[in-house]
Amino acid sequence: MANVSVAAEWQLLYNRYYRKPEIYQMRWKHVDLSRNKVACASFGGPIAVIRDDSKIVQLYAESALRKLRIFNSAGVLLSETVWKHPGGRLIGMSWSDDQTLISIVQDGTIYRYNIHAELIQPNVTMGKECFEQNVVECVFWGNGVVCLTEGGQLFCISDFKTMKPYKLADVPGLTEDDMLQPTCLAVREPQYTMSGNVEVLVAVGDEIYVVDEDEAQSIRFDEPSGEDSEMQNDDYGNLIGPVQKMIVSPNGKFLTLFTHDGRVVVVGMESKQIAIDYSCESALPPQQMAWCGMDSVLLYWDEDLMMVGPLGDPVHYFYDEPVILIPECDGVRILSNTSLEFLQRVPDSTESIFKIGSTSPAALLYDALDHFDRRSAKADENLRLIRSSLSEAVESCIDAAGHEFDVTRQRALLRAASYGQAFSSNFQRDRVQETCRTLRVLNAVRDPDIGIPLSIQQYKLLTPVVLISRLINAHSHLLALRISEYLGMNKEVVIMHWACAKITASASTPDAHLLEILLDKMEETHGLKRDDIALNFQLQLCRGISYAAVATHADNCGRRKLAAMLVEHEPRSTKQVPLLLSIGEEDTALVKATESGDTDLRPPLEFFAMIQGRILARDLFVAYARCHKQEFLKDFFLSTGQIHEVAFLLWKESWDMGKNPMASKGSPLHGPRIKLIEKASNLFSQTKEHTFESKAAEEHAKLLRIQHELEASTKQAIFVDSSINDTIRTCIVLRNNRAAAKVKSEFKVSDKRWYWLKTFALATIKDWEALEKFSKEKRPPTGFRPFVEACIDADEKAEALKYIPKLSDLVERGEAYARIGMAKEAADAAAQANDGGELLERFRKTFSQNAIFDTLKMPFQGVS
């Protein structure tokens, strides 16, 4: 009989059952939905109600002032405020994904409210054109809105977090003809479009346009299928005709159209094929249309709610009061003046158990529990029949329990699952516990005082983290705390929000008394609410709570003394010291920073000013920062006017950057290095005492830039960080004489230095022909000594002999001959040298141990 009573509430649409349980009896009073504009948030969120100023209504025992009132889903008033905004009539309002109420008035101004009816500043406008043309219609989706102006232009905000309006493409003919107006709009959300941008569907006359930021394209949804291709002709596009209302499916794949002749047409957005085509009794367009999950479409006229499916006759629900359809991911909530219902397709698990005449394993298991409670032997008989499918039956009972709103039915189904689990050895034992945990959370938030009627599918899609966030935003802190504890989640977020909300709401409470409330040190707690007592206790027990964040909130609320008292309880000096400085407690901040021993605290300017007058603290800080935290040291030197010290640090930093292995493998680090050196040069130039350093840094940056260019052109990482001499020498070795000459010119290298460098470079690559040619270009300013030295170092006697005779200094000539072992020529040169016989005597000692001494003996004796 229980199965019959449950299934009797269902309605059959073709081969699918639907149910419409009542969730709440609305607790509000004197609320007539037909006289108000209403915005209902998804996922069982709040309901915003305000008197519709576009309608003439009779005022009863109420103020002429319009009030924006916010209720929970059970009709419990959460907050209210007087609506007194300029800008014309209220065109539309909707809740964003983060439960911010977005309200758009006629001139395009957007007013935002939180769930406590507090205005969020600043106000935003849709733009100058919206202001001039006036908004006539707006269509919202989860986190954006599209507005239509009187001039037929479309403007969009695709993300309420950024609030940046932009204009969409013009619909052909709409802006030129004032008499031509769209009959309806629909939005395809960005996550369902191929371009990733929002697409607006605009019905104008017989056409439907898809409009985005770049273009407006006319589309046709009435193309025949393959088997009907012979029907295709030029007039086929007129089968749908003008559209009076349309909505996009939750997954963005289908579009529901209500045509001028009273047809409900569902077409695929991609396939362009008609999935449903049903003719209604009336061509009058419905007041509302909504998708019920992905299985059916709801259309609402006065007193008649019709549900249309793919096949079969529609289902009608009749109401003697106005209703609002609130689409959800798995159904539609139906809000009326007196109740809130949830229309959804009956889950497969529930249908298998409670369908009249069902003999599924789950139905037999549920029936077995009933027999067991009545001590009937048929319980064992049912279990024997389903023994092979017992795990499947247990799973179905658990799943069906999760989809139930009725607590008694939840218990019955879970008892059946536990009963069957006792006889099943291969079933996961934690499934029942997991579902029980989820249902306890859902039942807690479904309580009318909380008023969040989530289904289990919505709960999984929303996630517990977001649910906790919504509870604390609604100031249901105690429930949020208990759910966090129950699910093993972090409690700190809840307690922090409670503490901040308590400070905001206690403007008249003295600081010392409020501190005692927050820290739970009051001797008597009878003056506190039950929620506050529980949260006080948790605030005391929760280790690692960020008192600094609470103190920051207190400071922002203008309670600096309370902030200073709270920050004393902050255990983390990294958060404690900056906050103390921000509230003007510099001396306390310095003491705390010193006591903590935390060298990673980033000192602000106030800290620098304090240690400047304390020699020991200053010297310790400089010594530490020079080794470990040079960024701190730069900030300190800048704050104290020691610009040259900052320049030295920058210069050193550029050298440290050069030690990076990546610096020799390409260009990414060379640019920053050069900028650092140039910045150091500019800082040096600001002090008269460091002119040399400024010029040196400037030259260094110039050399580094040239070397980087050389590495880029030669594709060899051999130039950067070499000296000017090495750079010139390397260029010549690579036979890049033009680059070598450029370096010589840029850095004003003298001719003598140039000759030495080029001579040795040519000798390194043994280009003797080029060397000889170079020696004959002009008389070398260095003489021929570099040529001789280069040839001798290269062990090329023959080449050296080309230049030794050209040495004008006889001493140098003699020494050169001696170095290549030509004793006779060395002796002749020494004999001619006018040095008092010093060179000759040195040669005598040098060659005395060689066999060549005999050849030197006679000339030496003759000279002596």
TrEMBL record:
Boundaries of every Vps16 C-terminal domain copy: 545-841
Superkingdom of origin organism: Eukaryota
One Pfam family recorded for the sequence: Vps16_N
Record localization: Vacuole membrane
Range of residues in the leader sequence: none
KW Magnesium (keyword) present: no
Membrane topology (UniProt): Peripheral membrane protein
Sequence intervals crossing the membrane: none
Main location: membrane
Keywords from the named record: Membrane, Vacuole
Domain (Vps16 N-terminal): residue spans on this chain: 8-430
UniProt similarity note: Belongs to the VPS16 family.
Function: Required for vacuole biogenesis and vacuole enlargment in dividing and expanding cells. Involved in the docking or fusion of prevacuolar vesicles.
PANTHER family found in the cross-reference section: VACUOLAR PROTEIN SORTING VPS16, VACUOLAR PROTEIN SORTING-ASSOCIATED PROTEIN 16 HOMOLOG
Name of the molecule in the record: Protein VACUOLELESS1
Organismal lineage: Eukaryota, Viridiplantae, Streptophyta, Embryophyta, Tracheophyta
